[in-house]
Amino acid sequence: MTILLLGRDGQVGWQLQRSLAPHGPVVACGRAECDLADPDRVRAVVRQLRPGIIVNAAAYTAVDRAESEPELAQRINGTAPGILAEEAAALGSLLIHYSTDYVFGGEQDEPYRETDAPNPCSVYGRSKLAGEEAIRVAAPRALIFRTSWVFGARGGNFVKTVLRLARERDALKIVSDQVGSPTPAALIATVTGLALAMVRRGQTLAPGETRLYHLAAARPVSWHEFARTIVELAGRTPGFALRLGPSAVYPIPTGDYPTAARRPKNSRLDCRRLETDFGLQMPDWQPYLERLLQLLSLKQQGY
Question: Is residue 112 flagged as an active site residue?
């Protein structure tokens, strides 16, 4: 069964190439091969390949820039998933799509469940929610995974930003009143592979059924706590020439760090539905961070 993977060069897409391989031949496309901003190209790629499984790991992820590029964000995050869903429904294919904690406004105290009403507070969040809704309207067999605070070896992310700043500055000020779960791209890819295996072994989705799951690592923290942990662990790992230690990472409120887009203060996702349906237990993110730092350290040292 041919698998079409979109977004191969992103954090999650890069990891998915390995976890999807046991399920069939993977045709992995980057923007050059299939630009999600081009609806005609999206349809042409799917119709030419006729995949049994479509995995959409491509997205417009520039949260602040989306505020000034709402139409582009909507085409990639909102319109393209709907086109993929229409094509998947016509083929009888399975669609796997990734969404975000930013579909929520972040005002409630408890972790968000799949049944909680979305209320995005940014263009990015609204565009991702539009993608979810477009998939439901097209009614293919589909799995939608909402995740949060993704980090990995590929591409840019918060971990790499903190490491760069810790090499350049004597102190860092990091927002402490936004809380969520740092989630490794490798974990997302692994769970995707396991879920796909279970679906193919008989836990089939009915025609037109879309299942929504929250997928995030255990132990939510603030951005400040995450940054302190990054600096602390990197300071104990060879290869990082940091100018500061964790005591020089200072907490600040969101109001002291204005951005173009609002972020949810509570990005915690309740993953019990995923854990129950697929017999999983979401792991802590820190061991993944430690392995990532070891990998980046080896690269720093030229290995």
Answer: no
